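sanity check both lines:
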Amino acid sequence: MEFALLLPNKKRVPIDSKWPASEMLRKLGETADPAERAGLTAQIEAAVASKAQEVAKYIDPAQTIHLAIAAIPDSVYSVCRKAHFQAIKSHVLVVSYSMALPVILALYKFQLEYAVSVDQEVLESHLRQIADSLRAIEDEFQNRLSRGSIMIQNACTEFMARISEIKSSLASLRAPRASAATDASASG
């Protein structure tokens, strides 16, 4: 690889700007025959696709992001129609020489603003703490609240039993008066 852009997260973006098919490009500029131009354009597209496959080999997850850049001459870029799509399938962005710098600067800016570098040990530590806290909350629910609920239910049952006893006693107290009043009216 010729160049690599070092990103803030210490990963690199491979950049290759060598163009090996200069002769085809010269011939394309000299010919006016549509059939010959079509054949040269197809060869140039094949050369761009081949170059993209070569540049894709520079992608190394340990050292690079999952994208590489293949910069090609503006005149080559202008005749490519399918090579861009084939290249991006291999995670290679084909750009013209004149657009290479703006694209690279935009990529760097996006990396600064949106990329997040995660320290796996710190992440694992926080995940462990969250798991421990969830376990403690679950224990509280199962032990204290569950016991409390049972205690409230038992108290409610006991109170209802006592209320029934009181009602029964009240009914018993009222019952003899009612039967005495009935007896007195019957005898008189």
Notes: Residues 85 and 93 are 9 Å apart (CA to CA). The beta strands are 3-6, 12-16, 68-72, 92-96. The two ends are 126 Å apart (CA to CA).
